[in-house]
Amino acid sequence: MRTTRLLVTAGLLGASALTALLGAGAAFAGSSDSGSSGDDKAPTEAGTSFRTAQEVEQGRRATAGASTGDYLYWSFPADAGQRPTVKATVKLPDSAARPSGATWRIDVYDGLRRRQSCMYGTQSRAAAQDASSVDLSCTLRTVRAWSDQWANDPLPGTYYVRLTAAALTPSDQGLPVSAEVEVTSKKVGGSAAVDGSLAAPLVPGSTTEEAAAATDDASDEENGSSASQALATGEPEDGWSSGWWSDRWVWTAAGGILAALAGIGGYALTRGTGRPSRVPPGR
User: Fold this and answer.
1) Contact 103, 136 (CB under 8 A)
2) What one-character-per-residue DSSP string does 26-77 give?
């Protein structure tokens, strides 16, 4: 009975500790996932190149008015362990002025301006004649903290979204459209962890900031203008790679608890019941 009570007590304590860890992990993961958090600071226009891309925070919906044939650019930060999903909606003009063969497309580039492939989603779609809008989406691979130089894995830093229409005839160009872009992320956790990390996230000007500033100053003096163009500086709300929680903590704690229970059980089964009653003391 004593052994049974000991095992039951140890099991209850282990289950309580594991439940607490799981609850903490779920709460942390819920706070780490990006959701819709309002549009009060979302941009209402888009850039026309990588350098002029408008910064948008994850979970906010950016809007922009444009014309068919324009290239629209936005940028957003993504950290290690996140799996970003980019969604775009293009509101088309009425059917009388609809582009005849327009195919809308979104492309995502990393901080090195390498085009990133989509795991799934509708990256391009032809606009139907009676459609009032076109919905696009692209879910990237999980951002890795480190990668080989020859690989094309997504790495922490700034990402660029490009939205444009292809296969346009001259008569289809210049028609007014409006676009909406929203980026959300799923926190993948320890399953995407790697043994290594970057010295710095891949953000514009991270290694050439002083050179760019010197070039801008020289250009401003030559052109007689004091305005210089700022590079993207967005980063996650909690900073780059600042989250300490990973589901590997849960599995490590669970393994430790199971090992402790196995040790207690093995000791209880092998320790015996003590001195037999038939053996007199002192022997």
Assistant:
1) no
2) HHHHHHHS-----STT--SS-BSSSTTPEE--TT-EEEEEEETT--EEEEEE
The answer to whether the beta carbons of residues 202 and 149 sit under 8 Å apart is: no
For 145, 171, 266, the CA distances from 242, given in Å and listed in that order, are 12, 51, 41
- Are 56 and 62 in contact by the 8 Å Cβ rule? The answer is yes
268-278 residue pLDDT tens = 888 777 777 77
Helix (H, G, I), strand (E, B) or coil at 14: helix
DSSP per-residue string spanning 173-239: TT-EEEEEEEEEEEE--GGG--S---SS-B-TTTTTHHHHHHHHHHHHHHHT----PPPP----TT-
Q: What is the pLDDT of residues 105-147, one digit of tens each?
A: 999 999 999 999 999 999 999 888 788 899 999 999 999 888 8
> What 3-state class would DSSP assign to 241?
coil
Query: Are the beta carbons of 75 and 232 closer than 8 angstroms?
Result: yes
